[in-house]
Amino acid sequence: MRNTTDKIQRKMLYAVSIVLATALILLIALFGQTANEMNAMTQLVGDRDQTNPEPARTSANRYHFVLIVEENNHPYWNLLSKGAVDAAEEQDVLLEITGPFRSSLTEHANLLDKAITAMPDGIFVQGLDDVAETPLINKGVEKGIPIITIDTDAALSRRISYVGTDNYQSGLKLGQYVAAQTKTPQKIALISGSKGATNQRERVNGISDALKGTGHEIIAMGFSNISRVQAGQEAEKILKQYPETTMMIGTSGLDAIGIYDAVRRTKQEEIIIYGYDNLPETLNLVSSGKIKGTVVQEPYEMGRKAVQLMLDYKKGSAIPSTVYTDTRILTAKDVKQP
Ligand code: BGC
After folding, report:
1. Crossing angle for the helix pair 299-314 and 75-90, to the nearest 10 degrees
2. Are 191 and 258 in contact (CB under 8 A)?
3. Peptide bond between residue 243 and the one before it cis (omega within 30 degrees of 0)
4. Which backbone phi and psi does 122 adopt, to 5 degrees?
5. Is 124 within 8 Å of 100 (Cβ atoms)?
6. Radius of gyration (Cα) for the chain, nearest Å?
7. Is 202 close to ligand 1, i.e. is its CB under 6 Å away?
8. What is the spatial distance between Cα 78 and Cα 80, in angstroms, rounded to a whole number?
């Protein structure tokens, strides 16, 4: 009987020792793994401290860039965003796109400030209101976020690069084209996207510089807030107030279409119209001669190029401080089917 009890006790002791030994082995293994992970993390943080180049990113650790557009769901900005999204997808970058519901300089600046607070790996933003946004761009760059201006530059800021149209030159080009094509002196009204936006001001300056001394005269100006409806309303107001108007030029993407709405409504289709961009409806109106010509920009290319440049920068390559994308003037002969 005694013998049997001893045997049972020995067996129990043996089983307990095995359980304890297994637990010990597991604990040691777990500790080893955690130590490895901690090492890897320290490495990552350490690598991040070096300015350039950054460690290669994986899907779990991909770059996070933010693109701030002038207005959400606007056809011009949808094209630009598509270029950025395509490049981001190819390179496995997480791209967040944000923008005001309706174009607003204040909200645009607020969104930039908010994006800076989130500390992404890079920001793309229009230098929409260069005076108000330059200090914000500088703040972001000082905090270590590379910022690329897109579509509109803030040339005096510390942005690392600008990708987009040379807006002043594009206005000059359009003004010179108008002057060369139109010998009869014109009374011209301009509809601009906004009074405060840098690119709109630069375009207007370019157009008016080109028209100086040509006999053509700018007699009125309205602002559309980049809305087709508002462009139409402004154009209609001007046509009433300045019946001598013979030509109207829109300087943002939907202005010429809005101007055409107004001349059709008021039955003044003899008014000559010029505009910007080649959104589908603009192309239709150009091909039918209702809009005489339009300055074509490269929004898709701007978005694509900006993402590529940001990645080059993150990898430690030197990038150009300005990348001007192409502009050209498109008229009916360029869009008409042969
Ligand atoms: C300008 C953009 C603007 C858009 C509005 C374009 O011509 O480059 O800055 O937001 O027009 O339609």
Report:
1. 40
2. yes
3. no
4. -175, 150
5. no
6. 30
7. no
8. 5
Among 107, 200, 227, 277, residue to substitute to test ligand 1 (most atoms within 8 Å of Cβ): 277
d(CA 48, CA 26): 33
* Ordered strands of the 94-98 beta sheet: 94-98, 64-68, 122-125, 147-150, 161-164, 322-324
pLDDT in tens, 66-104: 999 999 999 999 999 999 999 999 999 999 999 999 999
274 lines ligand 1 (CB under 6 A): no
164: tokens are 């987009």
Ligand 1 centroid, distance to 40 Cα (angstroms): 46
pLDDT in tens, 166-179: 999 999 999 999 99
Name residue 125's beta-bridge partners: 68, 149
> What are the residues whose beta carbons fall under 8 Å from the beta carbon of 215, sequence distance 6 or more?
185
Closest CA to 206 of 162, 172, 255: 172
Is there an atom of ligand 1 within 6 Å of 121 CB?
A: no
For atom 10 of ligand 1, the residue with the nearest CA is 70
Confirm or reject: Cβ of 145 under 6 Å from ligand 1.
Answer: no
Rounded distance, CA 196 to CA 105, Å? 8
Q: Could you give the CA distance from residue 238 to residue 223 in angstroms, rounded to a whole number? A: 11
Q: How far is the CA of 190 from the centre of ligand 1 (A)?
A: 15
